[in-house]
Amino acid sequence: MIHKRERKYIPAELEIKWEVLQPVYDELLIREINSVEELEKWLQDRSEIEAALEEDFAWRYIRMTCDTSSEDLLQNFQFFATEIEPQIAPYNNKLNEKFVANPYAEKLDGEKFYIYLRGVRNALELFREENIPIQTEIQVEQQKYQSITGSMSVMIGDKEYTLEQASVFLKDLDRNKRQEVWQKITDRRLQDREKLNELFNHLRGLRHQLALNAGFENFRDYMFKALGRFDYTPQDCYNFHEAIEKEIVPILHEQAEKRKRALDLRLLRPWDTEVDTSGKTALKPFTNGTDLIEKSIQCFSNISRYLGERLEIMKDNGLFDVESRKGKAPGGYNYPLSETGAPFIFMNSAGTFRDLTTMVHEGGHAVHTFLTADLELNDFKHCPSEVAELASMSMELISMDNWDVYFKDEEELKRAKKDQLFDVLKTLPWVAVVDQFQHWIYTNPDHTDAQRTEAWTQIYDRFGAGFVDWEGNENAKQNLWQKQLHIFEVPFYYIEYGMAQLGAIAVWKNYKENPEKGLAQYLEALKLGYTKTITEIYATAGIRFDFSAAYVKELAAFVKGEMEKIG
Asked: Do the bridges between strand 159-162 and strand 320-323 make them parallel or antiparallel, or are there none, so unpaired?
């Protein structure tokens, strides 16, 4: 069994009620600090209470997403969001003020605390008392997305399926079956179109007000600061989008033409994009959730004994919930447990190849959680997404050489690898679409539903809707954005996937050239947590934090070459 880190400041058992927590925050606020050593001890004590609260919140979130139909679990989550976080927010701001005002703050190890100090100052600049109730409301409202989508299901034959389970039929060799199921999934999503539009409009208004209160023209500019994007600007994002359009979209267009010829179709339709072009049945890398976990442990162990042991620890401690079921929130995540030093992996497995890549992706996040568990301050573990997603996306590629654990047949293994590399490229235009759409949404805060639909359609068409003929299904295309959880729950957290995808390709390239060195550099970078800049962390991994057109072209050519080698 794993055990939580021993507490040195707060009681071993701490009831999560404000009347219990307030004295702890009051003590931190009034404590005298008369030396560098006392300041570091104060930071460690503050870190301890923050880790305890983060882990408590984590479990509330995990349990709620595992069963969105439970009113008790929802109320339990909302209690923290409405009764605890709003009380803590002003205290955190006062503690930040106390920290930066302390004369010994400037005498701390400049290299060790540079990132932390920068983050505290950034938080102070953003804080507004009047935003606390708005942030609370946003926190509560966002979760409605999961309740709405978690209840979606369709009947196929005489059996009920979640949308994740139903999507398996989109790989069926029978085109009529694929079309029937695609239509059912689409119709089910469209049933809640207006409900999700209303929810999003409410969230958009709250977010815009948050930005105005903090002195920003729009929520986009507010979020660039809130996410600590010190290394790039909105214009850099637009440049990245253009690079993807120029260098990646033509490759995908070429692949779509090959698919059309292989399937002997005059037009590719939306239900033709997942079926295997070889004419063989869908890849089946595992039989059930238990099998997926066991095979993933073996796969990771074959890369490195340390990696396999991390997943083994999680299995032994019940830190997986991987199978899809009705009432479970959509998607997948790895949630770090701040005191325990281990994470929880949540996903919606339905027995597909995509579930395998989700598992190794979240497994990369999990390894990252373990590697940063012993960093001195809780904040040192709070990696920016550009780094967090490097951990996960690199693992998708590094693990490929050990996918024979899932595929005993050599031809199936080749199919899996080619599918994965195609998905690596396919990820980039979708990232550009989702990111550019959000730029448009929040820099046009007064838009109507119809204007939003038009903006989505124009952006989506630019990055590849032309691969598929949508005639007669325009409503489905216009509504695709509602599938993306991030737009509702974690706005602007998406361009990082594109940046990290490039980084992951570079990590994999290093790994293929020298597995031992490539893996060591990757793990050393992850161990840093967020104690160095993004550029320095990428450099430690032996790669560049670069998303220029030239770099996109270079790495896309490498992936395309690897696809051709597989044959």
From this structure: unpaired
